[in-house]
């Protein structure tokens, strides 16, 4: 006969073991602070991982539970892996080397700066991520203002059209009336009037012959005005302040440089070390957008919704041949033909690094002195305007020769620089003797307006 009491005891023991294992399993779930872990995850992990899909590394949602269930791996192993995965692999750990091989031998970054508590917080976040807050109504800055401005502009345009059409109709009516009056006058003229009309000037040539000197003076004035008009028109060839062409991929500098505080030189790296700032390649964009496949920001430009921004990311993926599902390049690329906005003539030499590095503080100080109510913090803004507020980049200044010379005449050389103090000491002393002790060294004093500096 079966002794149910013995089996009952065994069952209770088995249940106890399961409960204790489950308790340990749950205890690991609740270690750490998920809220703090969320911040640490965003700072340290989002370049290679997301919670719910494969990126450069595997998805991390529930990774603690998954590894414990499938590989019998505990948090101690995860602590070692995050801090120094290279050392863990070197120790011969089988699973560490298996993961390394599975992900194409791409070495994970080491995080010796993270404490055990930090790692516990990150793991707690992957096990129990805080609920996402309800999507707030997207901020559409100046939406009402922009709509009012657009409506006012449309009303103004409509009013202008009505006025122009009315004036054209009135002018046409007056011409018709004059024509009819002329016909009536001809019919009513007597023979005496006809004889009198023969003695009157009947054409412009007769009028010119009679008043030849006045006519020649008038023509001379017209010639001078015409020459001035042509000269003035030619002087503004290539000056396109306010020019903002439509680009093949919509890129908002306000979102990238303004809201997300991306440094100008992260993308335009040539500005600091070279003559040109260069248009960044799409690979620079993909450094971030491999992990950013959709726009989740709060800011929406009036007239654009999230789908619009997401579509632009898809165009970026198609242009670079990136497959977001496989997280790999297909090799099928489509070159993007950007429309250049800032373009110096070939006969003008301009070196970005000279202004961005050597003249950085001097230019910022000079600009802020001349524009006390419109201060700048980055040297780029002195010429290109406040790019971080522009959704569509436009030319903010004229970029004429006179504009550059005026800047060189008013920008003081940074004499707080020890190198400049030593290099320009004799020049500074000479200028003080010539113009007084209050004189300052401006760029023109060190050759900034010599022809050969910009034209070669």
From TrEMBL:
The answer on whether this UniProt entry bears the keyword Membrane reads: yes
Membrane-crossing segments per the record: 162-179, 218-239
- UniProt cross-references to InterPro entries, sorted A to Z: Cyt_c-like_dom (IPR009056), Cyt_c-like_dom_sf (IPR036909), Multihaem_cyt_sf (IPR036280)
Q: Which residues form the Cytochrome c domain?
A: 32-130
Mind listing the UniProt keywords for this protein, alphabetically? Heme, Iron, Membrane, Metal-binding, Transmembrane, Transmembrane helix
Question: Known PROSITE patterns for this protein?
Answer: CYTC
GO MF assignments? electron transfer activity; heme binding; metal ion binding
How is this protein named in the record?
Answer: C-type cytochrome
Q: Which organism is it from?
A: Elizabethkingia argenteiflava
């Amino acid at each position: 006969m079966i002794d149910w009491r013995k089996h009952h005891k065994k069952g209770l023991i088995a249940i106890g073991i399961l409960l204790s294992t489950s308790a340990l399993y749950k205890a690991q779930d609740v270690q750490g602070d998920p809220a703090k872990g969320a911040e640490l995850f965003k700072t340290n992990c989002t370049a290679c991982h997301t919670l719910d899909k494969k990126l450069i590394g595997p998805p991390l949602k529930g990774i603690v539970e998954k590894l414990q269930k499938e590989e019998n791996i505990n948090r101690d192993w995860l602590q070692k892996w995050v801090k120094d995965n290279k050392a863990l692999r070197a120790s011969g750990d089988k699973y560490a080397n298996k993961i390394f091989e599975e992900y194409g031998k791409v070495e994970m970054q080491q995080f010796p700066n993270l404490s055990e508590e930090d790692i516990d917080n990150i793991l707690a976040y992957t096990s129990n991520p805080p609920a996402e807050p309800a999507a707030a109504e997207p901020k559409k800055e100046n939406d009402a203002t922009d709509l009012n401005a657009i409506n006012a502009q449309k009303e103004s345009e409509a009013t202008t059209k009505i006025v122009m059409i009315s004036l054209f109709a009135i002018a046409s009516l007056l011409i018709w009336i004059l024509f009819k009056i002329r016909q009536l006058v001809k019919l009513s003229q007597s023979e005496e009037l006809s004889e009198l009309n023969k003695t009157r000037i009947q054409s412009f040539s007769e009028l010119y012959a009679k008043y030849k000197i006045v006519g020649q003076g008038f023509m001379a004035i017209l010639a001078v005005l015409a020459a001035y008009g042509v000269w003035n028109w030619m002087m503004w060839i290539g000056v396109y302040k306010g020019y903002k062409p439509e680009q093949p991929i919509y890129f908002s500098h306000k979102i990238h440089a303004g809201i997300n505080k991306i440094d100008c030189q992260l993308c335009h790296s040539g500005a600091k070390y070279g003559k040109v700032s260069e248009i960044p390649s799409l690979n620079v964009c993909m450094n971030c957008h491999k992990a950013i496949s959709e726009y989740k920001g709060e800011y929406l430009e009036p007239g654009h919704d999230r789908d619009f921004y997401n579509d632009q990311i898809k165009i970026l993926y198609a242009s670079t041949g990136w497959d977001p599902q496989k997280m790999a390049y297909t090799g099928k690329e489509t070159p993007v033909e950007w429309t250049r906005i800032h373009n110096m003539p070939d006969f003008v030499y301009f070196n970005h690094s000279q202004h961005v590095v050597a003249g950085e503080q001097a230019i910022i100080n000079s600009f802020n002195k001349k524009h006390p109510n419109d201060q700048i913090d980055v040297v780029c803004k002195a010429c290109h305007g406040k790019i971080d507020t522009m959704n569509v980049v436009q030319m903010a200044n004229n970029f004429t020769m006179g504009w550059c010379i005026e800047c060189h005449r008013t920008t003081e050389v940074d004499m707080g620089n020890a190198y400049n103090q030593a290099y320009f000491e004799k020049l500074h002393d000479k200028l003080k003797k010539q113009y007084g002790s209050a004189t300052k060294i401006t760029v023109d004093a060190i050759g900034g307006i010599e022809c050969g500096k910009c034209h070669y």
